[in-house]
TrEMBL record:
Protein name: 7-cyano-7-deazaguanine synthase
Residues given in the record as ATP binding sites: V16, S17, G18, G19, M20, D21, S22, A23, T24, A25, V26
GO molecular function: ATP binding; ligase activity, forming carbon-nitrogen bonds; zinc ion binding
Cofactor: Zn(2+)
Pathway: Purine metabolism; 7-cyano-7-deazaguanine biosynthesis
EC code: 6.3.4.20
Lineage: Archaea, Methanobacteriati, Methanobacteriota, Stenosarchaea group, Halobacteria
Key words, A-Z: ATP-binding, Ligase, Metal-binding, Nucleotide-binding, Zinc
């Protein structure tokens, strides 16, 4: 796994959720010279329709080489996450919490990266990009640098001998604010991205995903362009 690859003329699969981190990863990959292949999954999350709409809009905006959408309903069937289980409420934001949040989908990134690697190998792509970052891995175990390093080894030994696919997590040591600032430099169209865990319109403004996103824009000194039911001030959090 690397976070500092040189620009190439190769193809890259990008895991695109429809959110701001993955959208920034798309523009980062393009800036490094990669042709983008979008990989998007619906896994029973509350806002899956909105997320797919945003991912498709982004693919159109960048003229993506391909858009692969996969249904991964087994994650909802497995459950144990407030994103997929109707019996569990999405908690209000706790930006300083040290416990793994209920929004954690067990081992989700291993599932998604496995499929993205299959897609990459089938399309002769030389990289898989994921937009995970430091504030993710403080709560989600499958967003840690050690996890990506280990998964790179899985990719190396589990593909054809002639296959060489690099797992690229360009923001793994960055904060959400760093990502927002980089995205603003790259002119990422954040108005067609979605982060809210609870609602498809307007965003709630009070779940973890909304709070981290609003805080990042507030720290960057730019207004988040999407609509919110509430816009709390998270600068002092």
């Amino acid at each position: 796994m690397t976070d500092d690859d040189p620009a190439t003329d190769d193809r890259a699969v990008i895991l695109v959720s429809g959110g701001m981190d993955s959208a920034t990863a798309v523009y980062e990959a393009i800036d490094r010279g990669y042709e983008p292949y979008f990989f998007h999954t619906s896994y029973g999350q509350e806002t899956e329709t909105k997320e797919r709409e945003c991912a498709e809009a982004l693919a159109e905006a960048v003229d993506a080489a391909d858009f692969c959408h996969v249904e991964t309903r087994h994650l909802a069937a497995i459950g144990a996450s407030s994103l997929t289980d109707a019996e569990m409420d999405v908690a209000d934001a706790d930006l300083d919490g040290e416990e793994i949040p209920t929004s954690y989908v067990p081992f989700r990134n291993a599932n998604l990266l496995s499929m993205a690697t299959s897609y990459a190998e089938a399309n002769d792509c030389s990289a898989v990009f994921i937009g995970a970052h430091s504030e993710d891995f403080s709560g989600y175990p499958d967003c840690r640098p050690d996890f990506f390093d280990a998964f790179q080894r899985v990719m190396d030994v589990g593909t054809k001998p002639e296959t060489a696919i690099e797992l690229v997590a360009p923001f793994v040591e960055w904060s959400k604010t760093d990502i927002a600032e980089r995205g603003l430099e790259l002119d990422v169209p954040y108005g067609i991205t979605w982060s809210c865990y609870r609602e498809e319109a307007p965003a709630c403004g009070t779940c973890d995903a909304c709070a981290f996103r609003l805080q990042a824009f507030q720290r960057a000194g730019v207004e988040d362009p999407i609509d919110y039911a509430e816009r709390p001030d998270y600068l002092d959090e």
